[in-house]
Structures are given as structure tokens and as C-alpha cells.
Amino acid sequence: MQRILRMQEISKFFPTSGVQANDRVDFRVAPGEIHALVGENGAGKTTLMNILYGLEHPDRGRIILRDEEVQIRSPQDAARLGIGMVHQHFRLVGEFTIAENVVLGLEPTRNRFFFDREEAKRKVREVTEAHGFHLDVATRVDRLSVGQMQLVEIIKMLYRRAELLILDEPTSVLTEHDVHKLFTTLHRLVELGKTCIIITHKLGEVKAVANRVTVMRRGKVVAVRNSAEVNERELSRLMVGESGHLGEARRRATAASSGKSPGRNVLELKSVGLTVRGRERPLLEAIDLNVRAGEILGIAGVSGNGLEDIEDLVAGLRRPTTGIILHDGEDITGLTTQELRRRGLAYVPADRLHRGASLASSVSENMIVSQRRRFARAGILGRRSVSAFARALRERYSIQANLLLPMGMLSGGNIQKVILARELTSSTDFILFSEPTWGLDVAASEFVYDRIIELRSRAAAVLLISSDLDEILTLADRLIVMYRGRIVARLDNSGSLDKDAIGEYMLGIRT
Amino acid sequence: MRVGRHGENILVSGFGLLLTLGFAFAIVVVLILLLSEEPGAALLAFFLGPFTNSYFFANMLNAAVPLVFTGTGMALAFRGSVFNLGGEGQVYSGGLIATVICLALPGAPGLAGGTLALAGAVAAGAVLAGISGLFRMKYGTDELITSFLISAAVILLINYFITGPLDDPESNLLATRAIGLQYRLKHIFPPSRLNPSVFVALATAAAAAFLLFATRSGYELRMSGLNQEFARYGGIDVRFYLVLPLLLSGALHGLAGGLSILGTYQRCIKGFSAGMGWNGIAVALIARNHPLGVLPAAFFFAYLEAGARAAMLQADVTFELAAIAQATIFYLITAQALTHYLSLGGRQGL
């Protein structure tokens, strides 16, 4: 058998976000290899693996497993075919033992009704030892280290006789030491006849453990290589794309800034850190940054490296564990969202559907949420002033929608327009954008960029968080790069920045 | 296509509701056919009885009054996405407190004392529900459970008082002494018990609708209920709106109890409020949590009961028929509302 798996001409389009997640993807895995699937967020690798594991159905394409075409409609089908997936976020019950977690859903029984705990322990111990692991299966899972928990997830798959294991960003929660142990485990599994696919964006690991690597970008496969034949810089370039001519857009942006130098510090983060229980690594560490009036500060990085956490902190939705946040020199750490908005914070969130909008409410109701007091006299909402306001916004932002319709009926692009319209019309000196053009077409994206540049020329301070490096390089005056919760680079966007170099910072290759 | 709040087709959704109510009626018809020796008379009595004379009709309107209050109270709670399951206890305690205040002030002027009594009733209900809200806000405890448990305990406590220290030795009922004459609301259509509280009910429903849809607080309450994360993002104090809907809901339930005493019963009878809380939930669900919809919904519930009573008096059916009809509706409406709410993705948006 030459190939254990071939996913052929796989295409998947998500109408709600307008994104072609997979575009005629051809993905082949040889038996007994460790195959790395790499790409930035939004590249389509998670969607591809979700299709393989039965969590999504492709619009087009076939899956050929062990030389036979198969239909995978659900994770149960996948399990039956010997495909197992270890997710990034563990699905374990802390209070249960290892054995109980592994057999969950396939419990051995006595007399058909009683859970046979001894049998469960015996079978799990058998599987564990057969693969060379040393774990006491009677231990409670919440007493294990994170690395050991991940092992339990792997054992769960092996118990279900998985031959092809998919691991989704397996090292994102592990310490360096555990990462080594995981690689040893993967090698051992391969020796025992398994095949592994790891989804990762960490290129160093690709070289350390994988035999072959498939690189995806914007829904397409851009390269397939033997890992021995390719170096990290090359992989990085394949992942983030060519350093194109950004001059055009950049010229536009510099012209718009009309040579005014940035003013006072509007927003500052000093020694900000964020740790949560259950995660060994702090989500954010030693974050120092400042945004000045009339400048755009870009925060670049791959999703999961702290961008979302900075977003939540600056927006006032989470409190930092350490450090302070200042607005115009005043301490605003821990203020409520109401107080922050009163201070003039505007915020375009990455999560449009749950945070940025109330899908069940009408477009007008969505438009007025942050300025509701403006329309209320003596506590009563002026219906006419609300509809006048809403109509004006719709006009200015070319929103295709009936204002009385629930938001949930609008297209993704229009939802974003409503959110932008609302946030940009509040008089503001500071605005936070997170992934503002994700899923938008070119015209809509240009519209957003024009608005952002306009804000800067009105001396607002703009913080732009984005995992789209092109976007940051088009708009930002300065940028910082996040990796694993820390700032690894601070750069001025002078127009001659090396995109490859930034890509390397984002992927942890360069420090 | 006319589109409703959740993008659903209003005609289809309304039709579904009618279907449910029609189905409940169908069950009543079937039961009457099965159980009655004179089904024709029984059916006639059930469907038309309440309209045949003004006594039945007026009493039916009066029975709808507490349901308007409890229904509106539940609608407000649901709009805030909080569950007030303590309605029964809140109505009952409203009734008791109103009675106690009236009994404690035998010589006071009717208007002053009566207002005080109602204020006490409102406060009693609000406090009982508000405690659950406070616990939810501070400790994250599920108000569905706490409101129910508190109510259950309170009911037992009130029963003790009515049958014990406050019991009227001269009455055959398990009840307190009667309140002073000056406190009793005038009967508009004697001998029926219809009284001015029906106007208070209409005004309350209108006021609640106004609050929800025309005021800033109502807007904040609704946004908080539909999507708490969005509301918080927009600068709304979502913690406050965990408590406010419960306070309002409890207050209205208490008022229902107080007005029932002053208008209908004139003494606190053991169990007078049984069912007002639970039916309030069904009324709110039928009304799709719109205070103005509560009016026809409450009327409909009262109609069921009045029809059953008429069938019982004029034919040979027992009163359980009404209970069965109400239970069927409650069951079907809850199922319909549940499917609706699950399709919206869970707790938000009830």
C-alpha cells in the first residue's frame, strides 16, 4: 500500500462567513509516517482535518483510505475506520480515573447493566502497556500533568483501535520537556505501525519530528516536501506568501498621515501579565506597549499566541493578573465596559457574531447599544431619533439591510459593516480593531482600511490586532509581534520591512 | 413574509400556537365525549357557558386578573433570560402580607391602609425573588433552583401561620380573619367578584410593554437577556440586569396576591393562590413574553377554568376537566417554547 490516506479535490465553502476554507485540496499521507500539516490560521488545515474526522462534510472531493473510497459522515464513522483525533483542548473528565476516561462511551459491562470497573482497568492497562506507556490507569485525571493528560487522549484513540492519529496543535499547551516526550511517543507509535498527522504552525517542530510536510495557505495546498529537504525559512515563506509589493497601499497610508507626528500616549500597557488556573504557561507575560494619538499600532502574531488575550484585556472584558493599563495617563485597569466606553473606547471585535452583535435583535437595536443614552430622554428611547440615526448609518456605510430585520439575517460582510458603523461614529480618541477584515471581500476590506486611515488622520489612537500580516503591513505605523504570550519584536513600519523576517518572529524561529 | 423577532415566519409561528391551543381543546372535547352521559350539554356548557350570563363572565374576567400579573412578571423575567420559579410562594406571601397589614390596622383609612398593604405585598414578592437574583449575581447560583426552593419553604411557612396563629376560629375555612370593610375593593358587578383590580391589571400590562420597548432600561434588559456578552461589550451593566427582572417579576407576583385578597377573597385563605404562579409561566409562554399578549393569554386560561366550572354545574362533568385542559396546554406550550428556545442555542433568547 503506497498511501494510507488520500484526500482528493476536497473543497469546502462556508457561506456564513464567505470563506473558501478548502479549495481543491489534495492531501496524501504514507503509512507509518509522521506528516505535518502546516499553515497560518485560516489556511484551512483545521477544516481539512475536521472533514477527515467527520466533523464537517466537504462540498466536493473524495476520501480514499487504504485504497478504498470511504464516506465519513460523523466521528463515529471515522472511529470505525481507525481514525482518531486528539484535540487541542482536551475532552477529559477531571474527577474520573484514566481508565474511566478512556472507556467513556464504550464501557465494558457486567450483566449488561453494571459498569465493570475492573475490566475497564484491565483493558486500558493492556492498551497502555502494549504501547510502552507507564501510567497507573487508576489515577484521577485531574492529578496528572498536562503532558500526561495528552497521553490519556492518545490512549483513548488507541483503545478505539485508531491506526491513523490526527493531533491538533499538540504542543500548544506543553512545556519544552513535555514536547520532547511527545515526540518520543509519536516515534514509538510509528514503530508500532501507526501513522500520525500533526497540525501545527510551529516550524521548528516540523523539522524535529515529521517525515513530510504539507503547507497550506488560504485554503490551497502550496507545497508538499520531505522535511529533511526544506529549511524553516523556506517553510515560513511558503506559509505567509511572497513579500509582495506593498508599496502601493503603503504609499496611500503614508500620504494620508500627511506627515503629522503622533501625539500623546493615549493607551499604555505596563508589565501586563495574564495567567489562568489550569494553564501552566502564562497567557501573557511582561507586555509593555503604548499607542499614541494619530498612530496605528499593529499587533501581529498567529492566533493563540496572546492576541485574543490582549484584545480581551484592552476591551475591559478581562482583568490582567499583573500590571496596569493606562488611558491618557490614568489607571483604567479593571474598569467596567460601561466606564471604558464613557471614556471613549470604541471596539470592533474579532468575534462578530457573539460579541459584536445580538443576532436576535434588529439592526437598529444593534446600532445603538453603545450610545443608547444619547437617544434617551428621561429614560425613554426616542424611536424617531433612533431610526434617523440608523438610516444615516446605513446610508453612509452602504449596508444592505432592512433596519427592522434581525441581525442574524444579514450577510457576514453587512454584519461587520453594522459593527463598524456603530463603533466608528462614536466620538472616540481610541479604537481597537481585531481581525477587522476576516472573511470580507476585497471591496469591503478596502472600505475598512480607508476608515482606519481616516481615524488616524483625525488623531485617534488605533490598535490593530490581526493575524493577517499583509493587513498590518499596509496600515500600521509601528508593529509588535507576539509569540507564546510575549512580545518578541518591536518594529517601525518604514516600508522596507522584510515580510519573511516578521513571519519568522511570528513562528518563533527568530527572537 | 412577515418576519418575527427571531427571523421566523410569523404566520407559521402563530399557526403553530393556534394548533397547540386547538389540540388542547380537542382533548377536552374527547374527554367530555368519553366521560359524560350528556356530552352535548356538557360541551355547550363548556364552550358557551361562561358567556351565557354576566355572573359567569365577570367571574371569569376576575380570575384572569392575577394571571395577567403573574404572566407579565414571568414575561419580564424571561426577557431578561432569568427563571423565576418561585411564583407560587411570591403570590402567596403577597397575599399574606397584605392581609396582615390590613388586620394590623383595623382603624386606618381605606386608601392609606390599602396602599400600604399592597406596597407590602409588592415588597414581599420582590424580596423573595430578589434574593435569588442576588445569589445569582454574587455566587453564580442558579436562580431557577433557589427561587423554587425559597418559594416552597415560604409556602409551608405561610400555611403554618394561616392555620395556626392567624387562624380565624369563627370561620369554617382554613383562613385568617377577614380584613376590615374599608379595605375591600368594591365589587363592580355583584354578585360576581369582579373589582377594580382588573383595571390595574390592564394598566400594568401596558406599563410593562412600555417599559420593555420604549425605555432605555427596557432595551438594556432585553439586550442583556438576548446576548449577555454583547450587552456587556456594549457597556450595559449585565449584573444589574440579572437582578432587576427578578425584582420586577417578584413584585408583580406579590401584587397579584395582594389584589386577590383585597378584591376577591378578603381574607387570606389557605391555598388561595395555588396555580397562579405556574399558570403565569404558561401565560407568558403563550404570549411569547410580550406583556400585551399576556392579556388574551390570561383571558384564555381563565376561560378554560370558567368553562369547566360551567360544565360541572350544568352537566355532569367533574372539575378535573379544567385541570386536565390546563395541564395539556401547559405541556404543549412548554414543549413548543422549548423547541423554539433550543433552536436559538440555549438559555439566551428565551
Protein described:
- The complex is a heterodimer of chains A (511) and B (350).
- Chain A is α/β, with parallel strands linked by helices and 511 residues long.
- Chain A folds into 2 domains: 5-240, 3-Layer(aba) Sandwich (Rossmann fold), CATH 3.40.50; 247-506, P-loop containing nucleotide triphosphate hydrolases (Rossmann fold).
- Chain A has a 6-stranded mixed sheet, sandwiched between helices. A 6-stranded mixed sheet of chain A has the order 18-21-22-15-23-24, sandwiched between helices.
- In chain A, α8 (232-240) packs across α18 (499-506) and α15 packs parallel to α16.
- The longest helix of chain A has 16 residues, at 176-191.
- The radius of gyration of chain A is 25 Å and the shape is globular.
- Residues 243-248 of chain A have low confidence and may be disordered.
- Chain B has one domain: ABC transporter involved in vitamin B12 uptake, BtuC (Orthogonal Bundle), CATH 1.10.3470.
- Chain B is 73% helix and 0% strand.
- Chain B has helices at 10-35, 39-52, 54-79, 87-104, 110-139, 143-163, 197-214, 216-226, 228-233, 240-265, 276-286, 291-314, 320-343.
- The longest helix of chain B is centred in the middle third of the chain and has 30 residues, at 110-139.
- The two termini of chain B are 23 Å apart.
- Chains A and B meet through α11, α12 and β20 of A and α8 and α9 of B.
